[in-house]
Specification:
heterodimer, A: about 170 residues, alpha/beta, GMP Synthetase, Chain A, domain 3, 4 helices, B: about 550 residues, about 65% helix, elongated, repeat (chain B), PTCD3 (chain B), ribosomal small subunit binding (chain B)
Chain lengths: ~170, ~550
């Protein structure tokens, strides 16, 4: 009982201290971290039994970017003296998730997002799962929604494929 | 942002190969529009997610529109806000509340309110981004709709010309024509003069309140005289209203249109080229080189009617006029006057028709490349015109290319078009390369006919079968030609005229067995030409004993059946 009382007072003093520090930190930001993914495992599909179809994009590992692969997201904020790289990355992630959900099951490969000046161009490869007028509806919807969200003109360029293009089986 | 978009912008998804016909194009652009409307609905319903402003400088059209009322207490500011947001019922309520509270409402504000009610006929306009509802209630509300407007009007302590104007225009818009004239008399009794908007409204209402053409015209003239007395200058809309009313006046209207147009010219009003067919020559010479803006909302429809009328008069075969009209489209903003895709297709259809009739094939082909498929998808009649033009100028060698286009445009299921094309190809023998290309084309067509998975299968006719066979024979593809004969049997058609051709080709290859087969086939079809064939075969070929026996058997059997 005494021990618990002591613990509880300790607890309350710790809480009070934490509260005060939190109170001091309330105008600032806190770190949000996700699970760790080491760089020797990121974006690599490991060789398996040989029955898993894999596209060119997935088959080549990240160290092949600029050798055998291009970039999925093209903007100028990574150049010397330019800023806004983090904002662009977050925007890209949002756009990819939005389109993955809007065109669910229809995407054949990763999106390619290009920024030319103010214009945001989303290039997508799609499978012929829906009738074409539904695609046009979704394209109009996404363009309008994203334009109003990001306050810049957004254009989608879509190419249709019969089926996913398999590069090899891993 | 909407008006500055590229006018020829069309939705374009690559590789989805079904978009080559007109109807899907329209369907797809409508689908895209409805997607945009759906997004606008979300944006305006949940504006808090779209408030963050990244753009520098600020882009106002990308911000959500405020559709909700902000000011809620009873005040003039609240009334102004409701009028701006076009909330008719709320505005009327606010006005009543203001009057009850004893606050005087200024004359201008009351006039604004009256304008609002007259424009929307006493019910709230449908939200721009909600699905369109064309309800019957709107129509039935017309006669009762002005109750609110009239009530407020009667309550007003002082009325000026603008108030009368709002009331009259509202009445005319919603169909209460005689009431409008009564209000106008009221206006005159109060010693006020009308303004140009009132007169425009009254002129457009004039045909409705009189029965005979003459009376209608007299009323209009009367109104115009009063306009002159009250020193109101007529504008473009006045003349448009007069001309529109004249259309309701039948033949009398036509004769009166001339002086009206001349007066327009005299007054130097920038014409919107609304006129009748007879005066088009003059109009054209006047308007060439000038750019129009569509000032009257009905302009687009009427202008496209003009286009069709013009091209109709060009069916008097005046290609020069057609070129002038077409060049007019390139001036300034005139393309907007061509209307939507339906009217565009009519215009280009007639234009192309005229071209095919009048111009040399090279010119036709040049226009063909220009117009198709970016501006115009010809229907099967258009393609037939093109084929005739090719025939006239002896360029039949281009037919295989045209066939590719026909297939792409989806006209390959039109039997008349296909048969005409085949008969053109089969008519004469051509130089060898052309003949080979014809043969390839013919085989392509044959493949189409024999496809079993078509929705509406093409049925063979004697004409198409014979054409294909003769093309194949002329190209010396004997094997395939023989296969065609089997098809004749299947389709229950008779190959009358082909036997001689077959005989010629068999003689060229000197194949006696085939010759005998030919005679047998001809006998099986009971063709009248069989005895003839038999004689020729017996004379011109070296036949074995067996073959001679077969032939003599056939001879006897046909002789017996005779």
């Amino acid at each position: 009982m005494a021990a618990s009382l002591r613990h509880s007072t300790l607890f309350t003093t710790v809480c009070r201290q934490l509260n005060s520090t939190l109170w001091l930190n309330v105008g600032g930001r806190s770190i949000h971290s996700s699970a760790v993914c080491c760089k020797n495992r990121a974006a690599r599909i490991r060789v398996g039994k040989g029955d898993r179809p894999v596209t060119y994009e997935q088959a080549l590992h990240p160290h092949q970017i600029a050798h055998r692969k291009g970039w999925l997201s093209q903007h100028t904020s990574n150049l010397q003296g330019e800023d806004g790289a983090a904002d662009r990355t977050v925007e890209d992630l949002f756009i990819r998730r939005l389109i993955y959900g809007t065109f669910h099951g229809c995407l054949a490969d990763e999106l390619v997002i290009k920024r030319r000046g103010n214009l945001l161009v989303i290039c997508a490869l799609m499978l012929q799962k829906l009738p074409p007028h539904k695609y046009y509806f979704l394209v109009g919807y996404t363009e309008e929604l994203l334009s109003h969200f990001y306050k810049c003109p957004v254009k989608m360029e879509i190419q249709m494929l019969e089926e996913k293009s398999v590069y090899k089986y891993l | 942002m909407d008006d500055l978009r590229d006018p020829t912008e069309r939705a374009y998804i690559q590789n989805y190969s079904i978009y080559f016909c007109v109807r899907p194009q329209k369907l797809y652009s409508l689908a895209q529009e409805s997607g945009r409307t759906a997004a606008k609905y979300f944006i305006n319903t949940y504006p808090k997610y779209f408030q963050k402003d990244f753009a520098n400088p600020h882009i106002p059209c990308l911000m959500p529109e405020t559709l909700e009322l902000q000011v809620n207490e009873v005040s003039e500011a609240a009334l102004i806000e409701r009028i701006q947001l076009r909330k008719v019922k709320a505005a009327v309520d606010m006005y009543d509340q203001l009057l009850q509270a004893g606050t005087p409402v200024s004359l201008d504000l009351t006039n604004d309110l009256l304008d609002l009610i007259s424009l929307y006929g006493d019910c709230d306009p449908a939200r721009g981004d909600a699905p369109e509802q064309r309800t019957e209630e709107m129509v039935s509300l017309t006669l009762t709709s002005n109750n609110n407007a009239e009530r407020i009007f009667n309550m007003m302590p002082e009325r000026n010309r603008r108030s009368y104007g709002a009331l009259i225009r509202g009445m005319v818009k919603h169909g209460a024509y005689s009431k409008a004239f009564n209000t106008y008399t009221d206006l005159l009794n109060n010693r006020l003069t009308g303004d140009v908007h009132i007169f425009n409204a009254l002129i457009s209402a004039a045909p409705e309140v009189r029965e005979k053409y003459v009376e209608k015209w007299d009323l209009i003239v009367d109104l115009l005289k009063q306009m002159a007395e009250q020193k109101v200058k007529p504008t473009l809309l006045t003349f448009n209203a007069v001309l529109k009313a004249l259309r309701r006046c039948g033949s009398l209207g036509r004769t009166q249109a001339f002086p009206v147009i001349n007066e327009m010219k005299a007054l130097g009003i920038a014409t919107s080229a609304q006129g009748h067919t007879e005066i088009l020559q003059d109009v054209l010479s006047e308007i060439s080189g000038k750019s129009f803006t569509a000032q009257d909302p009905d302009d687009g429809i009427i202008k496209t009617q003009i286009h069709t009328f013009l091209l109709f008069t060009d069916s008097l075969c005046d290609i020069e006029q057609a070129y002038r009209v077409h060049s007019l489209l390139g001036v300034g903003e005139n393309w907007k006057l061509l209307g939507d895709s339906y009217y565009q297709s009519i215009y280009y259809g007639r234009f192309f028709n005229l071209l095919c009739m009048m111009e040399h094939i090279d010119v036709v082909l040049k226009w063909y490349k220009e117009l198709i498929p970016s501006l115009y998808y010809p229907n099967s009649q258009g393609m037939r015109d093109l084929l005739q033009a090719l025939d006239t100028d002896n360029r039949l060698d281009l037919i295989p290319q045209i066939w590719k286009d026909i297939k792409r445009m989806g006209h390959d299921n039109k039997t008349e078009l296909v048969e005409e094309m085949l008969s053109l190809m089969a008519r004469e023998n051509q130089i060898p390369e052309v003949q080979q290309s014809f043969a390839d084309c013919a085989l392509d067509v044959k493949a189409l006919y024999t496809q079993t998975d078509r929705r509406v299968p093409l049925s063979w006719s004697a004409g198409s079968l014979s054409s294909i066979t003769s093309i194949l024979l002329a190209a010396e593809r004997t094997q395939q030609a023989w296969e065609m004969l089997k098809l004749f049997k299947l389709a229950n058609r008779v190959p009358e005229s082909l036997m001689n051709q077959f005989l010629e080709s068999v003689k060229a290859s000197n194949n006696a067995q085939q010759a005998v087969e030919l005679v047998q086939i001809s006998a099986s079809f009971c063709l009248s030409i069989t005895p003839n064939l038999m004689e020729r075969v017996q004379q011109e070929f070296d036949l074995t004993e067996e073959q001679r026996n077969t032939l003599s058997d056939l001879e006897s059997s046909t002789a017996m059946s005779d």
